[in-house]
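In the previous lecture we treated proteins in isolation. Real proteins rarely work alone, and many bind small molecules. This record shows how such a complex is specified: first the sequence, then the SMILES for nicotinamide-adenine-dinucleotide.
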Amino acid sequence: MTDYRAAVMGCGRMARGHMQAYKELGIPIVAGADISEDALQAFAEETGAEGLFTDYRRMLAEVKPDLVSVVTHDALHCEMVVAAAEAGIRGIVCEKPMAMDLAEADEMLAACRASGSRLTISHQRYYMPQYARARELIADGAIGSVVSAEASLKAGCLMTDGTHTIHMLLALLGEPEVDHLLGQVDGHEGYEYYGHRCENAGIAFLAFTNQVRASMVWGWMAREAAREGGIRRQQSLDPSWSDERHRYHHFIIHGDEGRLEVYGDVFKITDIESTPAVRIFRGSEIEDIEIEWPAPVSAIGLEIKDLMETIETGAPHPLDGENGRKITEAMIGIYESARRRSIVKFPVEARDNPFLAMCETGDFPPQGDETGRHVAPNPRERWRVRRES
Ligand SMILES: NC(=O)c1ccc[n+]([C@@H]2O[C@H](COP(=O)([O-])OP(=O)(O)OC[C@H]3O[C@@H](n4cnc5c(N)ncnc54)[C@H](O)[C@@H]3O)[C@@H](O)[C@H]2O)c1
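The predicted 3D structure, ligand included, written as tokens:
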């Protein structure tokens, strides 16, 4: 392995995961860029990095690191990846979502192709032991031939969390190609995160070219009904939801000889002591699958390790830019289906982000408090907003 020097652009919360990963791999972090002096100060204390920059372009030009992590808010991913590629950075680790739309994703891929930079998108759940084991079991025929799948996500919207859900769904199914899909989103709350509007919930049905079909439910539709001030909020629309077992993500993969369930992310050992992470059902037989926990190297560490292998040998990377584009296309396809109110056949032609375009044209009522953050109206208010819109 050759010697690498790493840098981080955007030194906030998620940068900690990247800093930890470089540390695990013994790769020195030589520089950081952030517009916040406080963030840079904390970063310097944690990493010992001496190169501190408020202008990331200056950092790229002056430090010329081998590896760069892009860990800023979503709308900056494209310009930062393009700048890193143009600066000749060999390996770029970009946080999810890859891009705001397909036009940006294509610009990022073109810049990396031109410079020879290797790009990965941090859908790092790919490397978490329970998802890796579930993929292996499905690929080895543990449930026979895959027929269909159900995915649900407790939190967020497609761009913040659902990008992971789409990625995991496709990875568990062996990366099938989407043929067409139908989707709808609920965006009436004016929720904003990572610098852009987000929907509160959504639902989609995907048909793949190999005849496998899948459904996805996310946001409040996939949670147990919560109570606000003693009043019950909307009831979950996910028919398989169980708050006892499901954590963050839940996948059910149906095969012709059984079904495999993945009960979401594992954050601590007690998670898998109470409920297994992976379970297989064959008739009345139930098999709990053991997973290695904790994993010796973090998921982002494994992503970066594979990136170095890609740089050195040209081996394909499972989370490469093309894979990131595929996830982006599914996400934009679902938003486009909601905009057109019809099925969307792949490839997706929309070059904009249909959800954000609909927010701008007022299809979803503008809301948000003075900070522009999530406003959760009480249930009566929620319905009043809906009636007036
Ligand atoms: N893969 C995952 O599991 C995962 C989890 C959480 C967040 N994320 C992603 O990570 C990204 C960052 O999220 P976060 O929670 O760390 O956000 P954050 O707000 O904590 O950090 C972002 C940092 O970027 C800095 N920044 C803003 N503009 C900049 C600029 N022009 N140049 C340099 N720095 C700039 C901010 O000052 C801040 O310190 C988001 O895209 C998010 O979707 C991924």
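Summary for your notes: DSSP finds twelve helices and 19 strands in the chain. The longest helix spans residues 321-340.
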